[in-house]
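WARN retry 2 of 3 for item q-0093 after timeout on previous attempt; input resubmitted unchanged.
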Amino acid sequence: TNHTISVKAWRLPKNASRKDVREALVEMRKVLIEKCVVLCNKENVRLLLDEARNLAMLSTPPYGWMFYDPGDELKKLFFKYSDIVCNFTVITLLPYNDSFNSKGHSRLDFALAHDALRLVTKSYRLVQRGAEEAGINVTDETIRNEMSRAILNNMERGLTGMLEFNSLGHRRNFSLTITAVTGSDTYTRGHWLGLDTAHGTRLKLYKEKHHGNRSSSFPLRGRTAKVVMIEER
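OK item q-0093 returned
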């Protein structure tokens, strides 16, 4: 096209203050940033959403926000903004709004630990069963080698998707779920696949849904309005 695409980045401290977040957002608005990719911890995202709302940077058009949230930890933060016709896109490793119980732990850490233990336990039992059926005693080294082989040949599915590995031991054949959040409504927007499909693409997008007839309450009802003025020079 004849349009130039520019990318700008703002870095927040790990424990950002409300002032840090607000200053970054004001700078973004000054240079007309409308599409934002957010790679922040949960607390920084909470502050960012709150300040973006105060600065009228959540409503569509023109603003759009994309969040990388592998453990599906952010969905509760979005409930506060269900009265806004927003444009959020969330990329998760775990299915969005999955109901599994992480027992108070980080959902991503819990899911990864669960899958690792499941994979190791299954592989060990497989090796032990094979040795018993063959009537042989195996050494610790043999068990390690056979378990490595069993893991590389594994086709098990866990909480984080297919537990397949390549010859280097790297995870493959997993998928990321892309979910659209439009205020109180959510729908699956697509998937990013760890392996190429038969059509040679890893990104699979579904039809976008528009709510042209949707009505919502006035977003400032019951709230204190803040008026922000930018002096043109």
